[in-house]
Amino acid sequence: MTSESVLDIFKDITRIPRESGKEGPITAYLCKWAEDHSLEFKKDEIGNVLIIKPAAPGKEGVPTIVLQAHQDMVCEKNEGFDFDFGKEAIPYEIEDGWMIAKNTTLGADDGIGIAACLALMESDTPAGRIESLFTISEETGMDGANALQEGFFTGKTLINLDSEDEGQLFIGCAGGEHTDAYFRYKPERVHLGSKKLELKIDGGIGGHSGDDINKHRANTVKIMADFLAGELPSGFQLISLTGGGKSNAIARECKAVIATPDSIGIAGRFGAYANKIKVEYASTEPGLNFSVQETRKRGKAVDSRTANALLGALAACPHGVEKMSPDIEGLVQTSTNLAAVSMPEAGKIKVATSQRSSVVAELDALVEKVAEIFKNAGAEVECYSKYPGWNPNLKSHILQQSVRSYRKLFNQEPLVLAIHAGLECGLFLEKFPDLDMISFGPTLRGVHAPGEKLELASMDKFVKLLDDIVCNFK
Predict the structure, then answer these.
(1) What is the dihedral of CA 449, 454, 455, 456, to 10 degrees?
(2) Is 23 within 8 Å of 72 (Cβ atoms)?
(3) Reported pTM
(4) Number of other CB atoms surrounding residue 156 within 10 Å
(5) What is the rounded (10 degree) CA torsion for 260, 262, 268, 271?
(6) CATH ID of 3-174+389-472, from 2.40.50.140, 3.30.540.10, 3.40.630.10, 3.40.50.1460
(7) Apex CA 235: angle with CA 229 and CA 238, to 5°?
(8) Which CATH number fits the domain 177-387, given the four candidates 3.90.550.10, 3.90.800.10, 3.30.70.360, 1.25.40.20?
(9) Burial class of residue 350, CB neighbours in 10 A (0-12, 13-18, 19+)
(10) For residue 77, what is the DSSP state?
């Protein structure tokens, strides 16, 4: 197996639609790939796929290794960029040693994991039995991992290929849960004499709500809500408020349309607020942009009672790091993401949030805190897709073998870490308590946001490490 063979397969994968919940095309691709390579495979009712490569001659006594990646990707694009994830290939470029999608997500999370599994199975690497597991809807609730049935795979050692920093071996992750709130409102007429203003914040970097939550990224939904709730005098009407996208991504853009008799005054306040925010994020968000313009957008306003309740709740809702780990330096222990606000239909406003923690009690308390804020504002609240964390096992056999391989190949020590992002390993361990697991991958940056990129130099080390572990596993 070579990094070139992995990249060739990944380039094929970038042409296949695989948004979370719509994985049909990639599921079909995997099944056909197995048929074309005369390998045994199976697919369960929900769409998880397992492809099996028998042991090479002389390796029949080696224990089975399960390689695992998820089929789906986060589909995010820059506002105004005309692109359909359901029909078009990801437009990537090779630039300065990186493979990058400048206006969309690249899908290397976790397309590279899929490609590595397939490249290894079609290679002549002498290995024991390999079971490659491809789960669905990891990004939106780990539905595939949660639905796995006993006996779907047989191996007791699992390598998860869904991490994003070469040279780091992960042996633990946070658990998490989603908390969404729904406001119902009555449309009301815009007051006579009012002008409509569109307030917009864009150009944010965004990023992964686990990996990037401690990197001082601007959450545009939070910034806009704080302005509307705390910086403006009463008297304006809220016509619309939309921003953010996926629940596991930090909001990069937000737009509000308001009606006001004092358009000049509000424009001035927004400009002054923008200057203050730009100073706060000067070192981490150089592209953050604020704009205001009059608009003739039609539509009625949200009734004042609901608008006030919504904005108050958004301003009160926490976002960011709640607690750092007292045991592992630099590791976030508990966090929350105010992910998105949308108006999916007339009379309805949706707020999406997600919480993460490696401590169950802290996760539960934070979910309850966020839920209570929105319930007290009159919203209906739904908590769902809870998944467990993965507690580190420093005595892990696959960890010890991976460290030995890394030392031998690169003459240096890998970092052994836990990660604040959620991995399916927690669910696997809950369902299959005897599993011995590790997670690693090449270096990715900007996942879950347009501009996601893969460092090509890291691919060589990632591929060599995986190949060596599988080849020498005992």
Answers:
(1) -160
(2) yes
(3) 0.86
(4) 16
(5) 0
(6) 3.40.630.10
(7) 60
(8) 3.30.70.360
(9) middle
(10) B
Contact 405, 167 (CB under 8 A): no
Catalytic site residue from 23, 72, 109, 362: 72
Given this model, what pLDDT does residue 235 score? 83
Burial code (b: 16+ CB inside 10 Å, e: under 16) for 237-274 equals bbbbbbbbbbbbbbbbbbbbbbbbebbeebbebbeebb
Rounded to an integer, what distance in angstroms lies between the CA atom of residue 98 and that of residue 108?
12
The residue from 138, 162, 165, 211 that is catalytic is: 138
Cβ atoms < 10 Å from Cβ of 385: 17
138 is catalytic: yes
Q: How far apart are CA 449 and CA 104, in angstroms?
A: 7
In whole angstroms, what is the distance from residue 244 CA to residue 246 CA?
7
Helix (H) or strand (E) holding 337: strand 332-345
Q: Specify which residues 294 forms β-bridges with.
A: 197
At 322-364, the pLDDT tens digits run 999 998 888 999 999 999 999 999 999 999 999 999 999 999 9
Count the residues in the chain: 474
Answer yes or no: 165 catalytic: no
